[in-house]
Each structure stands twice: as C-alpha cells, then as structure tokens.
Write a structure and sequence with these properties.
With 324 residues, the chain is α/β, with parallel strands linked by helices. The protein is 40% helix and 21% strand. The strands form two sheets. Strands 9-8-7-6-10-11 form a six-stranded mixed β-sheet, with helices on both faces. α5 runs parallel beside α7. It is globular, with a radius of gyration of 20 Å. Bound molecules: 5'-O-[(R)-(carboxyoxy)(hydroxy)phosphoryl]adenosine (KG4) and zinc ion (ZN). The site of 5'-O-[(R)-(carboxyoxy)(hydroxy)phosphoryl]adenosine has 19 residues, from α5 and α6.
C-alpha cells in the first residue's frame, strides 16, 4: 500500500511517499528555519503563509523523486493536529484535495503518534515497546502495547524538553534553533563541572522548570563575564538525558517491557541516543529513528497513516486541532 503524506504542523513543509508503513519511496522536507531565525522562534502567521507558498512545489518534488503518478497512490494522509492551526490547515486541505481529485481515501494522523511511528521506518520494530517522546511541545513516555493501542504513562507537568533546550540556548546567546547548537557545544564540554538539580516528582511525571531557573541563575552568576558555554551545555545535557533515560527505564521495567525506543526532535540528541543505545548491553532492545526522521517530516506521517490512523467515520469531515 502506497501512502502519500503531508506534514505542516509547525515550521517544516514536508511530503513523503511510504510503502506499507516502512519503506520510504520519497521524502522531501522544506524547512522554514531561515525565516524564523530572524525572530528567534516560530511566528505562527508567518509559518502558515510560508506553508501556502511552498506546499505546491514540495508536493511536485515528492512525486518527481518517487517517479510515480498521483493515481498510483492508494491513500492520501496529513497531520490533523496537534500543531499550529493555520499551518495544519494548509497540509490538511492539500491532502483532502488530492484525495478527492484522485478518488482515493484521506487518512488523518495525530502528530505525536506519527513521531512514535518514525521508529517503524526501515526497521522491523513491532509492539510492545516503551517510547520516550521528546519534541518541542511534548515530553511523554508512551506504552505502545500494539500498533493502535497506546497509553501515556508519564508526561511533563511544565515545560517540554525541546522547549527547555531552546529557552536555555537563547539564555546563553545561541542562535535559533537552539537545541542542535546546544547539543554540539555540549559534546565538547565537561558534564561534571556544574551540578544541576533533578526535579523531585512522581514516577509518571517530568518537570524541567526548576532546571531552567537553575540555568538562569548560573548564567547570571557570571555577571556578564564570558560564559564557559561548553561546560554549561554539557552539564545541562547530562542532567536532562540522565533524567529522561532513568525514568523511561523504570517505566519499561514496571511494564515488563524489554524494548525501548525514542522519538521526536530531541531524539536526535547525541547524549540521549548514546545513553539509550547503551541499554543494549543490559539486555534491552533499543531503537531511535534515523536523524532525518526525528524532527518533523512526512515519512513518519505516512507510516502512522498505515499503522495507527485517527479513527473516524467520514475523513472529509475531519478538522484540524491545536492541542493533544
Ligand atoms: O519534533 P520536532 O521537530 O517538532 C515538534 O513537534 O515540536 O522537535 C523540535 C525540537 C526543538 O525544540 C529542537 O530544539 C529540538 O527538537 N531538537 C534538539 C536537537 N535537535 C532538535 N534538542 C536537543 N538536541 C538536538 N540535537
Ligand atoms: Zn514534531
């Protein structure tokens, strides 16, 4: 089954064609980073306009890359939410139009579940598994009992990890998008120089606001003098990755689950991946999406349309939604 999918929930206009949920036939991502870096973050209205401008050419390029015609597609899918409403509308309307014109089904997809499904791309992963989902807007541990049976077993009570990465990066004067830059600097620093606090919350909760405040105080304590950027980044990254992996591991054990995966933009983080893959030596099976399928892309949306679509009677009546 060939699915053509569109992702436009935030600042990436992306299209992909995926066969049977795992085999990527074409994958095109047009990032708006350059536009938003001027503002230091994503401006929703500007993002929606950019999606409108680029969606046509991204669709065309995807078909060209795949060397197949729209009539050969079995179904058209798009992210319905959560995300920025104006942005989502562009992708949803384009996918619905393609489905109507070519007389094929339209499949709506949940963006968070799509991130989870990035782990199915070009792998043989099957449920059950525990998934640490870490993106710009969400931090959750999801118990994926079956393809269409998922339970959130832990989530953040304040900031999402990606959000904290971006805020801390800004605090340290790093350019947008901060997460990747912070990760790069952290790899060159000493993680043991600054001891940063770990939130004392329940086993089903994450909290990062205290860590964010600690970072602010640490930066202020240098009184405008040159910051030991690499060591601060490394210490921050160590605290975050350690907390995320420890908690996910505890939950995996609680659910007697021997397979642990990660997903979302922060799943591209070098230290998080290192700590996750290190669990292999302790008898766990671990997965993380290829780097290009961690941050927003449409291949994961196509995979999700195949394995775990949003249930609905009449897909053409589906509307976008902003919150999970
Ligand atoms: O999943 P995603 O592309 O968009 C959302 O659905 O939110 O995630 C974007 C987030 C941003 O906050 C970005 O800073 C973060 O992922 N990110 C990283 C890295 N690459 C992207 N955070 C830490 N380390 C990275 N290497
Ligand atoms: Zn995302």
């Amino acid at each position: 089954m060939l699915i053509f999918a569109i992702e436009s929930s935030c600042d990436e206009t992306a299209c992909a064609i995926v066969k049977d949920g795992r085999e990527v036939v074409a994958n095109v991502v047009f990032s708006q980073i350059k536009t938003h870096s001027k503002f230091g973050g994503v401006v929703p209205e500007v993002a929606a306009r950019e999606h409108l401008e680029s969606i046509g050419s991204v669709i065309k390029e995807t078909f060209e890359q795949a060397k197949i015609s729209p009539d050969e597609i079995d179904a058209y899918a798009s992210t319905a939410g959560p995300g920025l409403v104006g942005c989502l509308l562009v992708g949803l309307n384009a996918a619905k139009t393609l489905s109507l014109v070519h007389n094929k089904p339209y499949i709506p997809v949940n963006h968070l579940q799509a991130h989870v499904c990035a782990n199915f791309i070009e792998t043989d992963l099957e449920p059950p598994f525990m998934c640490l989902l870490v993106s710009g807007g969400h931090t959750q541990v999801i118990y994926v009992k079956d393809f269409d049976n998922q339970t959130i077993v832990a989530s953040t009570i304040d900031d999402a990890v990606g959000e904290v990465y971006d805020k801390v990066a800004r605090l340290m004067g790093l350019p947008y998008p901060g997460g990747i830059m912070l990760d790069k600097l952290a790899q060159e620093g000493n993680p043991n120089i600054f001891k940063l606090p770990e939130a004392k919350v329940g086993e089903d909760e994450f909290s990062f606001s205290g860590l964010k405040t600690a970072l602010l105080r640490l930066v202020q304590s240098f009184n405008g003098k040159e910051l030991p950027q690499k060591d601060i980044c490394a210490s921050f990254q160590e605290r975050v990755s350690d907390t995320l992996i420890k908690k996910t591991l505890n939950l995996a054990d609680k659910y007697n689950c021997k397979t642990i995966v990660t997903a979302g933009g922060v799943a591209a983080n070098s230290e998080l991946r290192k700590k996750l893959f290190a669990l292999n030596e302790r008898g766990y099976k671990t997965f993380a999406p290829q780097m290009k399928y961690c941050t927003d892309n449409a291949a994961m949306v196509a995979s999700c349309a195949y394995f775990n679509p949003i249930k609905c009677d009449n897909p053409l009546e589906i509307e976008v939604f902003s919150r999970a």
